[in-house]
């Protein structure tokens, strides 16, 4: 049986490129593409076929080293991680990418079946091959999906981070004076970034005064007020004086109702008033 396993593995390794080409041709024959997409696909064809051959090679190696199934699993996981990222960056939808699994199963087993018939392997021997190959194929589907989703989530997180950074714009008004216009709700994550970016940008712009305009903030509760106080306190420690402007009537009412204390903090009606006072 061990010798037959090795023969199966050697056959797969020998035929990997031919199997990959036939698989790829069959797989792409049913894909509807525009002319531009077709040109791009033709350019990448050689690389995609190489990726397919490398995957098929893993099954040949698994048969050669069938006593070390964990090693085969680890190699499958590595391939799936790299390929999941590559397919995601190509913009191929996950459901479309997972359709490849059926083609791999079809062509790997087709080649194995031909060789097993040539070797006249018994049913017991065939079942042992099934117990080795099918779990690897199933595991590859799971690992590929997890890798694809991971990179998708990472991209979303990076996009969110970039959006949050753009939502904390400190704009210089004159020498030593800047304005931070806040718009929308302030949650815990944005408050953390508010602290980091405000300190960093104030230092970069060499500010002595920062106008914190809240005219675009609809809700100020105790959590938001606490976060703003922390930012103001941190700025004072680096020599930047803060002036709050643009508190909306409904927000002012909420502040009073909640008993939020603004003593010690400079508050002006609007940006113009604060700016005029600084340059009066």
From TrEMBL:
Keywords from the named record: Phosphoprotein
CDD domains, per database record: STAS_RsbR_RsbS_like (cd07041)
Limits of the STAS domain: 167-278
Pfam families membership: STAS
Gene3D superfamilies named in the record: STAS domain
InterPro entries: Bact_StressResp_Reg, STAS_dom, STAS_dom_sf
Keyword Phosphoprotein applies: yes
Superkingdom of the source species: Bacteria
Protein's name according to its UniProt entry: Anti-sigma-factor antagonist
